[in-house]
Fold:
Amino acid sequence: MTRVVVCGSLNMDVVVQSARRPLPGETVLDAEVAFLPGGKGLNQAIAAARLGPPTSIFGAVGDDAFGNTLRGFLADNNVDTLGLHVVTGQASGLALIQVAQGDNAITVASGANRYFSEIMVSAEPRPSEVWVAQFETPLEATRIIMRKARQAGARTVLNMAPFQSYPAALLKSIDVAVLNEIELTQATDITIGTSSALSTVVEACHKLRAKGARAVVATLGPRGAVVVTAESATAIPGAKADVIDTTGAGDCFIGAFAARLVVGATPVEAAQYANVAAARSVERLGAAPSMPTAKEVAARLASA
Ligand code: RIB
Structure:
């Protein structure tokens, strides 16, 4: 059976919307607050599941009310939650997200996510599956999980976000590494900005490929994405969006990418679809709740 398997983080996102973010030491009044499911692992699982393929998540939550809410939200979106572990005595992950002027700043208290480990992953990977991980849970566990998945013939997608130094062997088990401009800069020491030439982005992607990833996808926000493999470099133009909140757009891209890869799309085809899905996701508030359905993405593709 084809399946997307996401291993990673779950957070309760405390989303505070204000006219602008406060300066250090300043207080800004008249903000709005919302408690929304999030965490890169959860967001990516929801994005994949809403687009069709059977999807499972492996991760850790605390023994608190937020953990129950996150589990319920996943189940309501047809994500298999049998792989969620409760870490006694720990709080569920929490992210404070300050949204202002269409942009966001995020502070994460990892809580139970810190205790996620490979021994919590009971499933045996299969060649028909795509396994997905990020950098919000312990990286040594991610290395072991992705190595096992790849050895079993599953395809592996790694979102190197938020970037941190990682075990050197990790990328050797990765089919597709996905990073945004900031993460690509941090991973390669090649500065990538909003106006960097595409040739510079491609150069950075190849530098990462040299460390083991078979393909690298750079997500460039409104500029679209670049897919770099051994054979080619393909630029995907940005899709139009009426931006309300960009939180989780990268996660939407990853989940949608995995959802297409698992049904046989090439990395370029999967990235083209994911690019449109991510553009749709920024038109609603929040991360996980903003993930589009297959019908919404199809409508957007039809009108493009
Ligand atoms: O990528 C967005 C996510 O980053 C948010 O949902 C937040 O929980 C943080 O993990």
Summary: The two ends are 32 Å apart (CA to CA). The pocket of alpha-D-ribofuranose is lined by residues 9, 11, 13, 38-40, 43, 95, 106, 108, 136, 247-248, 250-251, 287 (CB under 6 Å).
